[in-house]
Amino acid sequence: MTKTLITGGAGFIGAHLASHLLAAGEDVRVLDSLVEQVHGDVERPEYLGSDVELIVGDVRDRDAVAKALVGVDKVVHLAARVGVGQSMYEIAEYTSANTGGTAVLLEAILDHPIERLVVASSMSVYGEGLYLGPDGTPVASADRTRRQLESGRWETCGVNGEQLTPVPTPETKPPSLTSVYALNKYDQERLCLMFGQAYKTPTVALRFFNVYGPYQALSNPYTGVLAIFASRLLNDRAPLIFEDGEQRRDFVSVHDIARACALAADPANEAADGAVINIGSGQSVTVNEIATRLARILGKDVEPEVTGKYRVGDIRHCFADISRAKELLGFEPAVSMDDGMTELAEWLEGQVAVDHVDAAASELAARGLTV
To answer: 281: closest CA among 341, 229, 230?
Structure first.
């Protein structure tokens, strides 16, 4: 029987992937440090399947990683500190856990060879998504300046001030790393792909877009935007929206992410070996729309608060071109936004969320990372 190790597997993505692999007849082992900011004070998350073997340990701990790799055939590397804003001031911690932890894992694999490696990357490596100029020419570099943001001009524009049109972002767009977290995720994917090529270990890097679904850490103010909004709404407080809320994102169900990981880890999909692949819904929605829809589904008569502020490292528009995922993995999103949001709302019933958003916002403001 095939055994898969999921690093960071006690998180909400890892737990869904573990369930998916167990249902397919695989053995699953999880290595997770159970970071308190994500998990609170627990010895084992209640949502993690009882058939999942859990090793509590840090991916930077060589002994823990070596123990976790014994008897393993495949590795899905999800372990990472997550959060663009927090990464900008906890620089050493994020770089150590994300880049350093990946290096420790790869060195350990040298002594415990595996058949296949999948690494979770992120859409954050793109910075701004792809745009088209007025003549239809692709514009791969459309970063906003701090001076522009301080003046409240949110939309990206060309070098001569011309209007640009956001379009689905393909994997061919050059990276533009605007946060420590983005740099870390790029490090993770490049380290794994270089390792895979050097040691003939089939490796796939998946760039996740905005993942949402049950088991998200509602009390972590640096988690996904939907979980942050849910935490506010469950406490009858308005979701806080940066800029004007018209920035567009690609929200993808955790169920689709789990399926994509399983597909990438399947040796039958050798066409994906060595590839970087976007995993998203292929659709875009504004942050205003997502906040309003979540409030309606939760039955909360609370309007979002558009702050008109911005965060250093944020981007305006980025949503996925998933053509490569369809071609190389046979991946098709199966969960619509309406169905996914309804499932999230059902899970949220009875959940308790400690709202730390104001404290996190104050921390960023004190450091000059929001204006």
So the answer is: 341
Q: Residue type at 195?
A: F
Q: 135-171: string of b/e by CB count within 10 Å (b at 16+)? A: eeeebbebebeeeebeeeebbbbeeeeeebebbbbbb
Q: Smallest Cα–Cα separation from 72: which of 135, 2, 24?
A: 2
From first to last of its 371 residues, the chain has per-residue pLDDT tens of 799 999 999 999 999 999 999 999 999 999 999 988 878 888 898 999 999 999 999 999 999 999 999 999 999 999 999 988 889 999 999 999 999 999 999 999 999 999 999 999 999 999 999 999 999 999 977 888 888 888 889 999 888 888 899 999 999 999 999 899 999 999 999 999 999 999 999 999 999 999 999 998 765 655 667 777 877 887 888 888 999 999 999 999 999 999 999 999 999 999 999 999 999 999 999 999 999 998 888 888 888 899 998 887 789 999 999 999 999 999 999 999 989 988 988 887 777 656 545 555 565 556 665 66
Q: Distance of alpha carbon 356 from its chain centroid, rounded?
A: 20
What CATH topology corresponds to 3-366?
Answer: Rossmann fold (3.40.50)
Backbone angles phi, psi at 341, to 5 degrees: -70, -35
The question of whether 89 is a catalytic residue gets the answer no
Per DSSP, helices labelled H in the chain are 12-23, 36-39, 62-69, 84-87, 91-95, 101-111, 146-150, 180-198, 225-234, 254-265, 287-297, 323-329, 337-348, 357-366
Residue extents of the structural domains in the chain: 3-366
The bridge status of strand 131-132 relative to strand 138-139 is: antiparallel
Closest among 245, 85, 281, 283 to 155, alpha carbons compared: 245
Choice among 94, 126, 181, 186 that is catalytic: 181
Q: Does the predicted TM-score (pTM) go above 0.70? A: yes
Tokens encoding 332: 């098709």
State whether residue 179 is helix, strand or coil: coil
